[in-house]
Specification:
The protein is of the alpha+beta class. It has helices at about 1-10, 40-45, 50-60, 70-80, 110-125, 140-145, 155-160, 170-180, 185-190, 195-200, 200-210, 240-260, 295-305, 340-360, and strands at about 20-30, 30-35, 65, 90-95, 95-100, 230-240, 265-275, 280-290, 320-330, 365-370, 380-385, 405-420, 425-430, 435-450, 465-470, 475-480, 490-495. Strand 1 and strand 2 (about 30-35) form a beta hairpin.
Amino acid sequence: MPIERLRARRPHLFVARDEAPIAFAESVGGAIRLAALNARAVAAGLSVGLTLADARARVPEVEIFPHDPAADADWLERLAEGARRYSPAVALDPPQGLVLDSGGVDHLFGGERGLAEDIETRMARRGLIVRLAYGDTPEAARALARHAGAPAPDEMGAIRRLPVAALELDEDACAALIAAGLKSVGDVLARPMATIAARFGREAATALRRLTGEEDSPLTPRVVAAPIGVERRFAEPVARTEHMLGVLEDLTAEAARVLEERHEGGRRWDARLFRSDGEVQHLRVETGQPTRDPAVLLRLFRERIEALADPLDPGFGYDLMRLDVGLAEKLDAVQLRLEGGEAKSEAVAALIDRLGTRLGRERVRRIHPRDSHMPEQAELLLPATDPAPKAEWTRPEPGEPPLRPIHLFDPPQPIESLAAETPDGPPARFRWRRKMHDVARAEGPERIAGEWWRRADMAPPTRDYYRVEDVRGRRFWIFRHGLYTETERPRWYVHGLFA
């Protein structure tokens, strides 16, 4: 696969080199060794693990490229994304494999044979040679693809003929099985399972059970399937953006009908455009409130396309479009007020959605309450499209002034208290930013203890907050950091300003 990946990404390097021996090399333990070979290099007598010096001595004309495992892993991820056209459940089997759960989707391609032929054809267009196999378990499919010479109508019979290397045990266990005369999976199956576990380890018995389907082996997809998904397949690829947007509008309307039946609305919508050459382009829009309005969603998708750094390139066209609702929430009917208050709220939500789509979800934020009684920790600045936390804002009693100022200093700014009526009372005068303030009115204290349950070993001092107003009418929110029973010299701070 490394050579096929390089050929697909950089075809100019392989002009007039198709018949030349090609190898990838990497540094292993202070020596440069071969990591991957093409068929011509293998035929010339080279093998993986051979040092570069020995390889050049045996085959002087070999072409050497640096091995890049990260690029190979990224290429495998891209292939997995493209394989989602066949099944939503695709798992990586590194370094060179993919496992698909084709249950329930074979009929879309005319059965297992039709699905296999379509995969082989599409991979061949990208210069990739594949080995396909079906199995009742992921382990069976992987073992048959790696070790079987050709597809067999009898799956269990083919599994029995596999070498013991198909169990994927460590080298010592595999060598021990062969030394005991157990060269195939069928030989191992002929022995009692208890004997296999006792002599060759529990791992050997587990691998055997999973290979034969006696033990469950669930597939772990790289992407969790969305709860709601709709798609369109085209006999002729779609190459015009307007046509693609029209199909996308139909898909949003279809998904909206499903959401309406479930009394839900979507907040994260993912459109995947599968090109006929195997590339996949991904568009995502998120909304601050659940919605199932196709017109709103289509406008957001248009703005997402316009905001792309690289414009959409349909290539030879899209032959499959899929729309997934990755996040859905309850959305019941809304009763509009006579003065139109609810409509105004929806307009603000629509504006947030448009800005987030155009500028990026992290650049449009909203302040949410946080479950903490410490003033500087009682709010969070989150992306506007994120779900709101369960905590609620603290509201003053009707007719009472606000308990917290709108503007808080981060961190609180120190002040110098010059006089106080009582040791535990508010200051009569204080200096802040080199200016003296004479207190005319004061209200408090509001005592806030430190969150000792978070750090019992270092509980912060208690705070006494006061709302004070100076003789010029300026209002401050100040606090004494620590009681006289906690510290000898408590310090004073101004934490915020009231309007």
